[in-house]
Amino acid sequence: MQLGVCYYPEQWPQAMWADDARRMHAMGIRIVRIAEFAWSKLEPKPGQYDWAWLDEAIETLAGAGLQIVLGTPTAAPPRWLLDQHPDMLALDAHGHPKGFGSRRHYCFSNEAFHAASRSIVEAMARRYGQHPAVIAWQTDNEYGCHDTVLSYSAAAVQGFRRWLAERYGTIAALNEAWGNVFWSMEYSSFEQIGAPVALPTFANPIHSLDYRRFASDEVIRFNRMQAEILRVHSPGRDVLHNFMGFFAEFEHHEMGRDLDVASWDNYPLGFTDMAHFIPDEDRLRWMRTGHPDVSAFNHDLYRGVCKGRWWVMEQQAGPVNWANANPAPLPGMVRTWTWEAFAHGAEVVSYFRWRQVPYAQEQMHSGLHTPDNQIDIGGTEATQVARELARLQPGPAGRARVALVFDYSAKWMHEIQPHGATIDYYSEVFSWYSALRRLGLDIDILPASTTSFAGYALIAVPALSTISETLVERLRASGAQLVFGPRSGAKTARFSVPEGLPPGALKTLLPMRVTRVESLRPGISIPVLAAGRELGSAGTWRDFVEPLGATEVLARFGDGHPAILRHGNARYFAGSFAAALLLDQLEGCAREAGVMVRRVDDGLRLRRRGKLQFAINHGPHSARVPAPAGARFVLGSEVLPAASVAAWEVGPQDEPA
Amino acid sequence: MQLGVCYYPEQWPQAMWADDARRMHAMGIRIVRIAEFAWSKLEPKPGQYDWAWLDEAIETLAGAGLQIVLGTPTAAPPRWLLDQHPDMLALDAHGHPKGFGSRRHYCFSNEAFHAASRSIVEAMARRYGQHPAVIAWQTDNEYGCHDTVLSYSAAAVQGFRRWLAERYGTIAALNEAWGNVFWSMEYSSFEQIGAPVALPTFANPIHSLDYRRFASDEVIRFNRMQAEILRVHSPGRDVLHNFMGFFAEFEHHEMGRDLDVASWDNYPLGFTDMAHFIPDEDRLRWMRTGHPDVSAFNHDLYRGVCKGRWWVMEQQAGPVNWANANPAPLPGMVRTWTWEAFAHGAEVVSYFRWRQVPYAQEQMHSGLHTPDNQIDIGGTEATQVARELARLQPGPAGRARVALVFDYSAKWMHEIQPHGATIDYYSEVFSWYSALRRLGLDIDILPASTTSFAGYALIAVPALSTISETLVERLRASGAQLVFGPRSGAKTARFSVPEGLPPGALKTLLPMRVTRVESLRPGISIPVLAAGRELGSAGTWRDFVEPLGATEVLARFGDGHPAILRHGNARYFAGSFAAALLLDQLEGCAREAGVMVRRVDDGLRLRRRGKLQFAINHGPHSARVPAPAGARFVLGSEVLPAASVAAWEVGPQDEPA
Amino acid sequence: MQLGVCYYPEQWPQAMWADDARRMHAMGIRIVRIAEFAWSKLEPKPGQYDWAWLDEAIETLAGAGLQIVLGTPTAAPPRWLLDQHPDMLALDAHGHPKGFGSRRHYCFSNEAFHAASRSIVEAMARRYGQHPAVIAWQTDNEYGCHDTVLSYSAAAVQGFRRWLAERYGTIAALNEAWGNVFWSMEYSSFEQIGAPVALPTFANPIHSLDYRRFASDEVIRFNRMQAEILRVHSPGRDVLHNFMGFFAEFEHHEMGRDLDVASWDNYPLGFTDMAHFIPDEDRLRWMRTGHPDVSAFNHDLYRGVCKGRWWVMEQQAGPVNWANANPAPLPGMVRTWTWEAFAHGAEVVSYFRWRQVPYAQEQMHSGLHTPDNQIDIGGTEATQVARELARLQPGPAGRARVALVFDYSAKWMHEIQPHGATIDYYSEVFSWYSALRRLGLDIDILPASTTSFAGYALIAVPALSTISETLVERLRASGAQLVFGPRSGAKTARFSVPEGLPPGALKTLLPMRVTRVESLRPGISIPVLAAGRELGSAGTWRDFVEPLGATEVLARFGDGHPAILRHGNARYFAGSFAAALLLDQLEGCAREAGVMVRRVDDGLRLRRRGKLQFAINHGPHSARVPAPAGARFVLGSEVLPAASVAAWEVGPQDEPA
Ligand SMILES: [Zn+2]
Ligand SMILES: [Zn+2]
Ligand SMILES: [Zn+2]
Question: What is the pLDDT of residue B392?
Fold first, then answer.
């Protein structure tokens, strides 16, 4: 477990480098990421490379005992490339180009851009691939940032047609699969198919979904091209990408197959301020600490992307510059976030950035040091973590007893066809995740493509639009308690209502029939009752379910329709449950599954790693941690102030197998 | 009075058709609408028709005893037409085309599209025009849906210039009429005139109004072309169009002259969710029943479009898929809506759709059957209506005693020059309509072009921007009590302030002078007083009126300006009155007019048809209907549960002549 | 001190002119502005002038004893110019042209438009420049109205490149100054630089700022071209422009150097309704009077633009037509606004407009007369002012004891990099101005470029992004009490964080270091305390300050960070203070500065001009004015009804020197 930092030697006088490197090492930092936006410095003119400065930077850093992550600079293509290929720009839905002057202006489908990227990546990999200090490569930077996955360029549309032709074979097959008989949308050739945007009204949802799948594949293709070059020229080094929190415009799990490590960029305050699915009152409440589940959700998600190997590549170290409001973290939070990441299993936490740069777009983005090179609060807290880490190296994170299934396609399907203006996938999934965390549980977030769920005691499946027979079999084989949320199995992979109605293939586990659904405006809530007692309420969404066979109805909505159904070890929640109801119901499932439930309040959260049980307090109050009497604390103590962390040793007997 | 259904044989296996047809007839359905989106199936390649499937579908349906409404498929032009005529697409205000991939992507001014439409309509009319089962034709589908009346293509702008040249004769006359001396907007040729959009600031309002009139005329021209073909090749059949609720981008009354029947598509829950003029609290309150005046308003409007003949072509039969929230109707509402339509005089109520289609854009739009071909709630309720209808055929709707004047140009003028961001025509008109309905009155909604108002006892004229001398004479000749709302007569037909100030020609009836107006933010309300007593309040809009001649002031605003004026049998309300004040004041007018007032609460509404008095309860509570003692009920009874209907027999003596 | 009126002879029959002119003079009006939108009447075809009507209009007006301000008509270029030069249109950020059909559709960078403007201005100036009745020229009309300063045409972008080349010399210097090493934004030629819009994410802030500076320079260049022509052909006449309230897209002070008089257009109700920085509750409260500081702010600002000479060129005389809500002014306000302008030192107050025009875009904009040529409320009140003025001519306004520094660049910098979605420059500056006015103070609003602050006792500097060493020296030299607001000195002129951190050069006055900042969502407030007592609170923005040297901390935020700092006679407020705290703190500063503080409540405001002390009551209640016992009132009396004005004589002894 190590600390790292993001550093931009090209942005500072060379005279500062050696001192920077020395102080990094002195602070306890061992890893430094560089070069990921430096294309114009590395290749100032087409084909003319300038390695001298990077050679020097690498030697300086390596000389100070630091290990290096090299970033490929493709997120910031230089201006001369645009002169050569004006068509390299991404286009919006109306065909407006996204201009030069920031970053990520490229279209993933532009082959000239691919070629130029290939050249710079190969040149860097050849030069530095075998350097002993270079331990890893980062491809590009935050794919999808600034809404850049989707482009509507001619190259993208042509690529889409080829992609469709490969997938469907004949245009007749596509017409059939898409249901183009509807509204006379039939095509006679793939060349007639355009992007599903700027139409008078809704596009055919499968048209939209296929475009998003295609766009996702384009990102993966671009990344794979880089990964393949790096593996040839830099054997033995980790290849990673720095994903973002809550960007889900491409299939992360699929890209994960081309990577060694899934790293991600953790800005808890920015995410809390901007995530649409966080209620405004929570946004204010957690403005200085981050919503207590915002980082953890992504930690648990990315741990599942590359077989458990993951880093935080960029860790917020002070105020950011890009949210609607940019408050300062509560003192202690930079340390707390760092420990939280380690508790969830991170190999590395790397701060963004060594020093705030006083110019250009990110001049208001803080770092470990102020622009005048004085250490800032985040720097001091990082130093403390480094000291603590030196005496404390927990083992691997291990597998949790509870899994939550997360699916990128489901998100896209919810966006394409929300069926209600305030409805989306993250709102549902995040509320389930939060409830499970309020129960004190460790959670693995897994893709729907997971091949084995063996070992899980409880598997939560909220809002998973498409459920294949294979998934049903794998879930059944797990023997776990299974809980499905509303809209699960609502669609086929071709974006239609399943034969025999939803939940489609899930019916073999949970015999039932969703005959109708409804979306509700905010402010509408429907009581959920059992045995005459009101258990809580639902809002936003409701399935009208007809139970079949031996399926029991455990609770009903106020108007008599089933709200909670059960068949064997599978349950179905037929509405979007309010937080309290969801918490109670999931607690019941967890207890039945035999996992240890420890309800925590406010900002307190638990996470075990190896032999250590961590408790993280996001505030706002101090909290008593649920440690057994006589527990041996290695961090903090039983009473935890806001913005701090405790850890105590646990044995294997503390968790029911 | 009959029930119908919308059916799409092309979307289902042919093997299902016969059973579908048989079950339709068994349910009591007698009319089936087909083919209105099937262009690509009927003409798969340019000029190559495929009639076989439609021949078969028609024979199957007719063979089961069903009568057929054939839709012309021009709302969904096939993809090959776009290959031939890329310029057929409608363009938005910035010149962006509206792409292929949904429907209604065509520009009404594109002559190549006219020609292609003419060909398919003529081909269909020739083939099926004399078929004995074909009783009617529907032209296109929901003109104006998805905001498709206005296009800014080169053809549209050229058409606009020709339209202007015809209307104004010379460019000098246009400059004079438009007042183009203002801001140096003078033209020296019609060729210099563009669309009134994408300008630095407001266009000249008459420029905008003329563009909307032109666009309306283009829709009417397109429809007339179809109607003329159908009359030639399909004599004796009704020609109709399915209008929408609250789409008012073209002159429905004018189009009505080319039709035999005005049909419309009634989605009470969707309209309630989406209509901007319904307050949010009402939106929630009526989310499962529809606002109690939303369907009725359109019934009463469309009854006036084709000399009293009207249908509901598409009746909501379950949740829709297109509103911001899409709740399920309260059980009973599908039946109740159907009876409500009949109470208002509908000849036919036709449900949308026979069966929910599991794919493409409307896969979440319910029908009488679920996608797995099981009957749904709406289907069951339709069956009940059919049984009830069998024993109950009321006579024609007859003329009401109360008229409300509705004018498409007034709506456009309010939109072009609202003079206040929250102000619009529907808000005012709908609140007047609602108040009259709360008084238990039957209402005819009439165009300003109505030639005779004879027989009406009370005529309400809210917010009618332009009042011609002819209209004044016709209103005067009616002898009715007349009530004018704010902004009545505020503008000339050339969109200017009338000479001598508003209310223009209305002055001869109501001598007064509107010297000034004001718009007010939500939250501002101004008391209205008479004889020291506060009668209620006004908000949003106020006219400052100077009474002239013998005009009396019946009430004043808190600051002394006249609020209610009267001259002879004409009254003027000088502000946008809050609901309670409007209700009280219109009640006074109704009583003075000698019409029977029966205040109803909540969701209860009354409507007489022939010898039957209907009471419709939209809920949320059960209600006691105002039937005389001993009334003979043919539907329901004196106490009416929510979401239900009652009807009792009345004699002519029950209504004061 | 005189009254004027805006008049459009071309919009009315010639037969009305003489009577209009006679009545103007009879009312007491002495100045009339004409012709500023009449290009198409003056030059109906390219190069063919029609002077006859204007000759006649001028003779008629002059003959009635009126003096004339002639407007150049360049704000409304005629349609034929667009035929000649289709590229004259301004383009939006996506390249969409702003079409013909309203006004201000031109691009300031289009040279063909410059040439055409030069011709019409020169032709007018030659013809009327020496006319004895012509006393002044107005250039164009409301530069910047309808957001028309920024254009993204090819000419604009080319001009920007030339502007940059002149400013930076070499592309290397630009890359260095802009920090283009960041994100590989380096250019190799000026020809590669585009407009900083339509990018995937933020542009480099200096890129944006330079584009706005360039655009401002283009406006100034266009105006200077006109001013130079006018000075040649119309010597001795004042050249002025009519600026707007709260339009700040170009450097008004810089343009002021080319003008003799700064006139502005005062629409207090429209500004109150539309200004984003006015809280909604105030918007409603002052809807009929205007926020009490809205006119005054601009009076005090424009007085500083042309060495003290300023007019109100257009004074609201009734409801306007362009705000979101357009209420009628409270009776008395037109008179009150007029006197308020005189109290602040106006030479002329000219009403908009003589008569409401019944057609085209402004048909709902009131004037002194209704469209049917009857005098309206505003006309009656203007007549009263004229009578009052006849017996009451106060001396010049003189210099105030309190200055507030306002800077256009600071506004742009706040917009380019607000660092918080709800944050902007006007919100901060206007709240400071309001607080100072609530203290009863007279205020001069001065540019940051002011060469001498001698004579001021108190200088307020809120949110001044860039503070140069020169400014620091000039402020120090003044000897005044100095109060700086948050973000003062936060940036260099090259839009970067100053070396050694903010407040940059201000450090020599106020030794301190802003190590971090934060923006806060609405609803968050942080207490400010001193000696254990809560003084008030701050929200929206906070600087984290480390005091250096002898700088004292006078108050702290709840978490201990300094909130108010002081060094010598300079104070720094480290947050966006809520109104009450700001009022108290500025009162302390004012008392220490030795200026006379008289707290006024609600809508009462004070302003001295020459020997007269004015009190203006914007309502809503009557108010007792703070006149000394026995004061001689020349207008009103001690108790002032809402919407009225009082003035009493004061001696020099009433103000502490
Ligand atoms: Zn290329
Ligand atoms: Zn565009
Ligand atoms: Zn064509």
Answer: 87
